[in-house]
Design a protein that fits this description.
This is Flavin-containing monooxygenase. InterPro entries: FAD/NAD-bd_sf, Flavin_mOase, Flavin_mOase-like, Flavin_mOase_2, FMO-like. It comes from Rattus norvegicus (Rat). The protein is of the alpha/beta class and 432 residues long. The chain has two domains: 238 residues, FAD/NAD(P)-binding domain (3-Layer(bba) Sandwich); 126 residues, FAD/NAD(P)-binding domain (3-Layer(bba) Sandwich), CATH 3.50.50. Helices cover 25% and strands 21% of the residues. It has a five-stranded parallel sheet, covered by helices on one side. A five-stranded parallel sheet has the order 9-18-10-11-14. Strands 4-5-6 form a three-stranded antiparallel sheet, with no helix packed on it. Strand 15 and strand 16 form a beta hairpin. Helix 1 crosses helix 10. It is globular and about 65 Å long.
Length: 432
Amino acid sequence: MVKKVAVIGAGVSGLISLKCCVDEGLEPTCFERTEDIGGLWRFKENVEDGRASIYHSVITNTSKEMSCFSDFPMPEDFPNFLHNSKLLEYFRIFAKKFDLLKYIQFQTTVISVKKRPDFASSGQWDVYVQSNGKEQRAVFDAVMVCSGHHIQPHLPLKSFPGIERFQGQYFHSRQYKHPVGYEGKRILVVGIGNSAADIASELSKRAAQVFVSTRHGSWVMSRISEDGYPWDMVFHTRFSSMLRNVLPRTVVKWMMERQMNRWFNHENYGLVPQNKYLMKEPVLNDDLPSRLLYGAIKVKTRVKELTETAVVFEDGTVEEDVDVIVFATGYTFSFPFLEDSLVKVEDNKVSLYKAMFPPHLEKPTLACIGLIQPLGSIFPTVELQARWATRVFKGVCRLPSETTMMADIAERNEKRIDLFGKPEPDSADQLH
C-alpha cells in the first residue's frame, strides 16, 4: 500500500520534498497557504501574515552552480548570483519539469497536525486544513514540515530602553521593501546579518546618514572571489576542506583570518566578530565595505537607550535626530499548527535530531525540512534532508534510539560549528 505524505509549504524545501516523495514511490499532497510556489523567494509588495517577506532587491548569496538541485542544473544563461525573480523562475522550470504542481493544493492553510489515536502502532496523522472558508481533515502516513523559519519576526523591544518614547519610525526588517521614501533621513539599522547589510547599503544611497549597530560584529565577504569566481566555488572544494581538516588549528585560523581581512580590515571598522572563528553565517555584501570607507554607513556599538529623537550607544556616543530604526534582528522558530510537545523550541533552538526528527515519537513519521543555515547554499542540504526523510518513512533507513538522538541534540545545542567545520563552545546570542 502506497504511503501518503503531507508536505506543508511549497517553497524550496517543499518542492524538493515533493520530488523526493515521488522518487521514493510515496504519494505526496502539498498544502500551500498562498496562491503560488516559491515561499521566501517570491517577492510581494505587501507583507502577509504567516508568510515570509523579502525586499525587492534580494539577490542570492550562493552561486547558481552551488545552489541548484542535484539532477537539474540552472539554465546556462542565468547569471552566477540570482535576483529573487530569477530564482523563482528556476523553481517554476523545476516544478514543470517534474510535474510537481499537480500535488499542490494552493490557498490551503494547515490548521493543525495531530497524532491519530492509534499513532503508537500506525504512526499516522490527522491533518486539518482550511480552504475557501471550509475546514477538512485527511489522514496521512507521514508529514514533512517545510514552512521555513523566516516568518515569525524577532523584535526584542525590551532590550531597547526608551523605545516607547522614541518619536521616529521603527519596524522589523521584514516590513522593508524599497529604499523609496527614506531620502534625507538619518537611519539606524540594528543587526549585522545579511538583511541588515543589504538594507543599510541600499538606504545609504538615498539617506543622509546610515548607522549600523552591532554587538558582536561579523565577517564580511564579497560574492566575488579569486579570479572572479563565485566565493562558494572557491571556498567549498574538496582540497580546501581537506586542508582545513588536516592542518594544525592555529595555522588554519591564521590563514582564515588573513583571507577574511584581505578585502578590507574588519578591525578598522569595528566589525571583527567577538568570537572570530564562529561563523554561523557570514555577511555576503559587495557594497558594504565601500559605503563604510566613505562614511555613508557608520558602525556603532550596542544600543544602550533611546530618547525622543536620539540614540545612546554603549561606548557613550550619541547620535541625534534619528528618524528611522530598522530592527534586522532575525526570526524565531514557530510551528503554530503543531502541538507544543511535537517540536520543542527553547532559546530559539529546536529539539530535533539532526534538525529534522522529533526524538520522542513512537514512530519516525514527522520531519522538519530546511531548519538549517549552512555555510553555503541550502539547496543541496535540504535535498539530502528530504531524501533521508522519505527513506525513513519507507522504512529503508532507521533512526537511532531516543537516548542516542537526545544526546546528539544536547551536544549540538551546546556547541556551534566554527569556520572550519569543528565544534566550539557557543558564546554568541541569537539577537544579531
